[in-house]
Design goal:
Elements lengths: L5 H7 L4 E6 L4 E5 L1 H7 L17 H13 L3 E7 L5 E10 L5 E10 L1 H30 L3 E6 L4 E4 L1 H7 L7 H8 L2 H17 L3 E8 L5 E10 L9 E8 L1 H23 L3 E5 L5 E4 L1 H7 L3 H4 L3 H4 L3 H17 L3 E8 L5 E13 L2 E10 L1 H52 L7 H31 L5 E4 H11 L1 H7 L2 E5 L5 E4 L1 H17 L8 E8 L5 E6 L31 H11 L3 E7 L3 E7 L8
Parallel strand pairs: 17-19
Antiparallel strand pairs: 1-2, 1-5, 3-4, 4-5, 6-7, 6-10, 8-9, 9-10, 11-12, 11-15, 13-14, 14-15, 16-18, 19-20, 20-22, 21-22
EC number: 2.7.13.3
Catalytic activity: ATP + protein L-histidine = ADP + protein N-phospho-L-histidine
Enzyme class: transferase
């Protein structure tokens, strides 16, 4: 192998690609290592058009023309392959006779420089976009932005400042803006802004600025320096925000707080406030007069320490629980007065949350007289309850005990009817009247006992009842009367098959209504009784009992429906107790009973087992 010359060795070590293209066919001659990265598999003696490597096709098309006309050409930042850019330079070289012998190809890898230039370009574009966006934001925001330099000269204000002050865009900003500041605020504003520039810090202060209509409005001025260490700040950028309404609201709030404090001190009741942690930070004047202690002596837990000793621990636990959960605090406790006398108080506290955070507001109301009155009323109520219970017991026992003499009388009259004879022609009528009177007396005693028993059953526990099964049991007990009158019973409970109620009370209600429907049936048609349960639109259970009997007078005061012993159809045997019991049971359990009726056509009882609440 022919040894390389020093010049050739130097060309191989150059940090740029060097290659020669010899003859008109432009065949590879010399190729150094850096050029090998560009031409790839091209070897000496091969045509560049056959083995171009990563040389751009446009560049290859130019090589024959350069060889022909002997010109030079340089291409900057040519993309050669997917990841590299080169500066390509081509110039012809000559033989000893001065003829063009080939082309010298130089390639310098500028991939990193091109990437940096591209990044710089993209960064410049991004900066322009951000600058435009920032300008749009500052000039459309509901505040005025400005820039001042270290000497205090105003170099920029946003259009909002001109609209607010009414000044023309040609105005000398540095000279005019101090004149628009309220005279009482001008020296303070100039001093504070100059101090901020002198110390290299920002500022934050409020002052009054004259609006275009001559009205001064409170403004909040904030500014921060533009910092480029180690140089001192030269520009301050800031914003003006109108806070006039906030100042007025704050002033109104201060006046309101003073008025409320005056009102609280005027109330003859213990009023206090506490922090979010439950520590009392205010007592009204009456509290200190009642307790005989100062605010410092009362301390942050004063009202707890004033309670009756045995009540302090329980009250403190409840107060801690309320503070932790935010739930209202309320309870009755004995509170010590300045003379050592304990009086009953109702202590209430509620939490209020606003922009300043949660706080507690509490009162201690003296209820000593109400407490004693309540004790007296409770004693009287207990006595009345005992008397009522004793009366119920007496009525129940009396009705039960009187039935035996009634049965004895009935037996005596039966024996008298068999063994004695009377010549009186009205004998049969008289005996019939006696039987009727005894039957009514027995029925009345039974109903009285049922009334007392039903009242006692109203306290029985409730359970989820299957309407279909309960109605079937009731109708089974009335089967003889149903068969006797040829009645048809239609049970429809599919819409509301279940009911949470007392079983005994449900049986009493339905039994009385169905037996009444059978008893007061129309003589000209067989009874038809419909039992239907369903839900109202608000989800409340309802039972409807409809018949085709004699009907009733609904709005006639002379014929009350639910009054004890009141009767409308006196030609039918009865005591007037059944509907009274139904109405009493339903109302005592929180429901109500509605009635619609047409004389001669029938009656419908609608039982609303539970009265809907006002919130539903």
């Amino acid at each position: 192998m022919k040894p390389s010359s020093p010049f050739e060795q130097m060309l191989r070590q150059l940090p740029a690609g060097v290659a020669t293209l010899e003859g008109p066919d432009l065949r590879y001659g010399f190729i150094n290592d850096r050029m090998r990265e560009l031409v790839g598999e091209g070897q000496p003696g091969q045509r560049v058009t056959d083995f171009p490597g990563n040389l751009p096709s446009v560049f290859l098309e130019m090589l024959p023309r350069i060889y022909t006309d002997g010109s030079e050409h340089t291409a900057k930042a040519c993309a050669c392959g997917p990841h590299h850019c080169y500066d390509l330079s081509v110039q012809p070289y000559h033989d000893e006779q001065g003829q063009i012998a080939g082309l010298l190809l130089l390639a310098v890898d500028v991939s990193e420089q091109e990437a940096a230039r591209q990044r710089a370009h993209e960064l410049a574009l991004t900066t322009r976009h951000l600058d435009a966006r920032l300008r749009v934001l500052t000039e459309t925001a509901p505040l005025m932005t400005y820039t001042v330099d270290a000497a205090g000269a105003v170099t920029y204000v946003s259009p909002q400042w001109y609209r607010f002050t009414g000044q023309p865009p040609t105005a000398d900003l540095t000279a005019i803006w101090p004149l628009l500041v309220h005279p009482d605020d001008r020296l303070r504003v100039l001093y504070e802004s100059a101090a901020g520039r002198r110390t290299g810090t920002g500022w934050n202060f409020e002052y009054r600025l004259r609006r275009y209509d001559g009205v001064y409005r409170w403004m909040l001025s904030r500014a921060l320096p533009e910092v480029h260490p180690p140089e001192a700040p030269f520009f301050w950028h800031g914003a003006l925000t109108e806070v006039h309404l906030e100042r007025e609201l704050s002033e109104a709030r201060r006046r309101g707080e003073a008025e409320l404090r005056f009102l609280a001190d005027s109330i003859p009741e213990l009023v206090w406030t506490a922090s979010a942690e439950g520590l009392v930070d205010y007592y009204n004047q009456f509290t200190m007069e009642y307790t005989g202690l100062t605010k410092e002596e009362l301390g942050p837990t004063g009202w707890v320490g004033l309670l009756y000793l045995q009540e302090q621990a329980a009250a403190a636990r409840r107060w801690v629980q309320s503070v932790a959960s935010g739930e209202p605090f309320e309870g009755e406790y004995r509170l010590r007065r300045h003379d050592g006398v304990y009086r009953w108080h109702t202590i209430r506290a509620r939490q209020l949350s606003d922009e300043s955070g949660p706080r507690w507001f509490g009162t201690c109301s003296d209820v000593e007289e109400q407490y004693r009155l309540r004790q007296v009323l409770q004693t009287q109520y207990d006595e009345l309850s005992r008397a009522h219970h004793n009366l119920d017991t007496f009525v129940y026992a009396a009705s039960h005990d009187l039935r035996q003499p009634t049965n004895n009388l009935r037996g005596l009259f039966e024996e008298l009817r068999r063994s004695a004879s009377f010549a009186d022609p009205e004998q049969a009528v008289m005996l019939g009247m006696v039987d009727t009177a005894l039957a009514e007396l027995d029925s009345t005693l039974i109903d009285l006992a049922t009334t007392v028993r039903t009242q006692r059953q109203q306290q029985e526990p409730v359970e989820v009842l299957d309407m279909s099964l309960v109605l079937e049991e009731i109708l089974l007990g009335l089967r003889p009367e149903i068969m006797q009158r040829g009645a048809r019973i239609d049970v429809q409970v599919g819409e509301a098959p279940g009911l949470r109620y007392s079983r005994a009370n449900l049986r009493s209600v339905v039994h009385n209504l169905v037996s009444n429907a059978l008893k007061f049936s129309h003589p000209n048609r067989p009874p038809l009784i419909v039992l239907r349960s369903y839900l109202t639109p608000d989800g409340q259970p309802v039972l409807e009992v409809r018949d085709n009997g004699l009907g009733m007078h609904i709005d006639d005061p002379a014929h009350p429906i639910f009054q004890l012993f009141a009767r409308q159809h006196t030609h039918v045997d009865g005591t007037g107790v059944g509907l009274y019991l139904v109405q009493r049971i339903v109302s005592s359990q929180g429901g109500h009973l509605a009635v619609t009726s047409v004389i001669g056509e029938g009656t419908t009882f609608t039982i609303h087992w539970h009265t809907p609440s006002s919130s539903s």
